[in-house]
Amino acid sequence: MYDKYSMKAEEFIDHQQILDTLAFADEHKRDAALIDQIIGKARQRKGLDHREASVLLACELEDRNEQIFALAEQIKKDFYGNRIVMFAPLYLSNYCINGCLYCPYHRKNKHIPRKKLSQEEIRAEVIALQDMGHKRLALEAGEDPVNNPLEYILESIKTIYSIKHKNGAIRRVNVNIAATTVEDYRKLKEAGIGTYILFQETYHKESYEHLHPTGPKSNYAYHTEAHDRAMQGGIDDVGLGVLFGLELYRYEFAGLLMHAEHLEAVFGVGPHTISVPRLCPADDIDPGSFDNGISDDIFAKIVACIRVAVPYTGMIISTRESPKVRERVLHLGVSQISGGSRTSVGGYTNEEPEEASTAQFDLSDHRTLDQVVAWLMEMGYIPSFCTACYREGRTGDRFMSLCKSGQINNCCLPNALMTLKEYLMDYASPETRALGERLIASQLGDIPREKTRSIVEDRLARIGAGERDFRF
User: Fold this and answer.
1) How far apart are the C-alpha atoms of 289 and 281, rounded to whole Å?
2) Number of H helices, E strands in the chain
């Protein structure tokens, strides 16, 4: 029985409820009156439930689809302006005891070299990332209690935060590791992590169990309930995601939104981020062996419908996607992207031969961070390296209340401009710096409060003179 307030996975992600939702969406995919009603509700910027959003995703009326895309773009601007947050993944270890059929880190893969970074190697990776200009990392590690125990993750976080190289510093460490206990989540919170991210991969329980035949991850309920335990452990920023291509995309979409509704209902805080990765080639994994791949057009519509359904959430897209696809979905809802990424263990300091790669998946966007930053600015976006909300304690319900009311914009634009200025002074190529200086000058007038604008102008000048780390 579907119950978004339940703490049981099979009740807040109810299979029959999803099937009923998909049947309802099929029945009404050309129902102009209902679709108009749902779009009208979405215009209020308070979100949609999984059934309403599923109707929009199924909609076959082209003029209404155009309205959905336009609304998604406007809602993204309303909540996040033209800012795009930058981050990079950092792979600590690819040792893993799970048997996931879609991931090259699975235990039976004897081809991929296994590697785990020492603390000194982590230090070298972090310095390389700092020298690129990154301030925000997402830690990644396979599930292996012997090689990657929580103590190793905690020590790695401490190492990362301790490194101050030239003007570089990692100011926020998000963590994407396996489901664990409330007590372990409490330890991660005490270590100062930002967001705890865990992808569901698929919400379809039968498919989930087929795709995870062995290892701790095979426990569907324990995995699906992980975000609840993270919240109970004090981590109030959590990130959701599915791996599109494993199961029917409309099923995953409905399950994803049901999960967001559950978190909002139980904890008063929905997902801080939603990621939308698609299955892609990796070592011994062939995406063609899976039957549920989705086109770029469907992918774009998924992003747009998530944006109108969960307007407050940050949406993440990685270098799995090509520059062309990334550009398209930036307009429709994505607010965070990676740049200059490596998905191999030690990949920022060592170039691996293809036949000995430790990468989790193949990249489709190989551009440097500087190239990505310049590309964003050429399109009128502000690349933001801001971590102020996390460092000022604006997390969880405090962040959400400010975001939903629009007040967060009073901080976000100034912080974005100041962190972009830091990047331009310390890391940018001459061409990117010139482009960025023009962008900053053009954006200052968009700061609504004269006093704030004056403070920002003063701080920008001080950053130009060598000072660092200002924030509102």
Assistant:
1) 11
2) 20, 11
Q: Tokens 């049981």 appear where?
A: 8
- In angstroms, what CA-CA distances link 213 with 102, 108, 206, 209? 11, 12, 11, 6
Candidates 146, 240, 137, 232; CA nearest to 189 is 232
CB neighbourhood size of 281 (10 A): 14
**Distance separating alpha carbons of residues 55 and 22, to the nearest angstrom:** 8
Characterize the bridge pairing of strands 164-165 and 168-169: antiparallel
- Measured between alpha carbons, how far is 28 from 371 in angstroms, rounded to an integer? 44
pTM over the 0.85 mark: yes
Condensed to tens digits (0 to 9), the pLDDT of residues 171-186 reads 999 999 999 999 999 9
Query: CB under 8 Å to 20, separation ≥6 — which residues?
Result: none
Give the number of other Cβ atoms within 10 Å of residue 334's Cβ. 26
How far is residue 90's CA from residue 359's CA, in Å, rounded to a whole number? 11
Q: Which residue type does 312 have?
A: Y
* Span 240-279, pLDDT tens digits: 999 999 999 999 999 999 999 999 999 999 999 999 999 8
Q: What is the 3-state secondary structure (H, E, C) of 384-415?
A: ECCCHHHHCCCCHHHHHHHHHHCCCHHHHHHH
Comparing CA positions, the residue from 174, 163, 171 lying closest to residue 140 is: 174
Check: CB of residue 243 under 8 Å from CB of residue 201: yes
Handedness of CA 361, 367, 368, 374 (dihedral sign): negative
Distance CA 346, CA 3 (A): 44
317 by DSSP, 3-state: which? strand
- State the Cα–Cα distance between residues 450 and 7, nearest whole angstrom: 47
